[in-house]
Structures are given as structure tokens and as C-alpha cells.
Amino acid sequence: MKPISRELALQLCQEIQTENRDKWYTFNGLWCWACAAQAKGDSTRLCVSNSPDYCGCMQVNKRYKQRFDS
After folding, report:
1. Which of 9, 29, 33, 62 is within CB 3.0–4.6 Å of 20 for a Cys-Cys bond?
2. How crowded is residue 39: how many other Cβ atoms within 10 Å of its Cβ?
3. What is the mean pLDDT of residues 40-62?
4. What percent of the chain is helix, strand and coil (3-state, nearest 5)?
């Protein structure tokens, strides 16, 4: 997979977080909740930022691949 720009990765992350809000009972919802809680508002601490190419979150990677990397 190609590297994702920081801006696009954070945009996709925000979309996914919005979709998963209040869905803590699902795997993806729990993942987003834990990631956001751990980050405490600091985007450099989000899962997506765990990799220098912003491919640190499987949910963001999947969304990116579906939209841009087909």
C-alpha cells in the first residue's frame, strides 16, 4: 500500500470515528473509542500515527484502499 498523507489519514480517521461513535459494543467502535481515549486529543498519539507513512490503523488503511488504492 502507498503511504497516506497526514491530512488524508486524519480525515479518514475522523470519518471512521464519527461512524463508530457510541458503537463501543462493536470491534471497530471499541477500537476507535480506545484509540481516541488514549490519544486525549493529540493526533500524534492516534493509531494512524503509529507509522511514519500514516498506515498505523487497519480501519484507515481499509478505507484508503477502498477509495484511492484500487
Report:
1. 29
2. 16
3. 94
4. 65, 0, 35
